[in-house]
Amino acid sequence: xKHKIVGKQKNSKLCFVxxxxxxxxxxxxFYATEGQELIALFKPCEEHQSYPGRLHGGVASAVLDETIGxxxxxxYDTEVWGVTIELNVKFxxxxxxxxxxxxxxxxxxxxxxIFEGTGEIYLQNGETAATxxxxxxxxxxxxxxxxxxxxxxxxxxxxxxxxxxxxx
Length: 168
Ligand SMILES: CCCCCCCCCCCCCC(=O)SCCNC(=O)CCNC(=O)[C@H](O)C(C)(C)COP(=O)(O)OP(=O)(O)OC[C@H]1O[C@@H](n2cnc3c(N)ncnc32)[C@H](O)[C@@H]1OP(=O)(O)O
What we know:
The protein is mostly beta strands and about 170 residues long. The protein contains 2 helices and 8 strands, in the order βββαββββαβ. Tetradecanoyl-COA binds next to α1 and β4.
């Protein structure tokens, strides 16, 4: 299925998943779809392994967590932030290194204090390698972190190959 991309989310400087200057991080890019889902693209490398050649389950969990946690940003013009209070991941297939992976996240439930969502990691052959459910407590950013957008380089990073649509 083709997902039309309607926007790109911001990256940060040092976050393990989205930090562009975290040398050991995943440097994932996040694309909002017309269908109010969020798709992350990233390519894990040797440093992200558990068993040789296989992505560490904790790293797979981290990218699922962030993709679901960021999907809430698609819903509002102002930024709504959450901290993870629950994450359940099912690992269905080994996830290889050194190839681009797609992660999809969406919000499934929301009230004024909590939001919930689900996500999946897809292999290049279209198989679902992992699925997740996450629950997040809404917290204003100033309560989560001492956050200065300039210092944390919180901005949209455009790439030449940013997609207009993503097939999954
Ligand atoms: C900006 C640039 C950055 C780049 C990154 C962007 C990426 C974004 C990515 C996002 C993805 C990555 C995200 C990350 O990695 S976030 C990092 C991982 N998560 C955390 O650090 C969260 C740690 N927990 C807390 O800080 C506190 O527990 C919070 C703030 C959640 C509540 O503490 P607070 O003192 O405020 O409130 P309270 O204790 O009076 O509780 C209030 C109510 O909530 C209920 N409750 C509490 N805990 C739980 C629980 N675990 N399950 C179920 N319910 C829970 C509790 O029963 C109570 O209900 P009630 O009794 O009132 O009915």
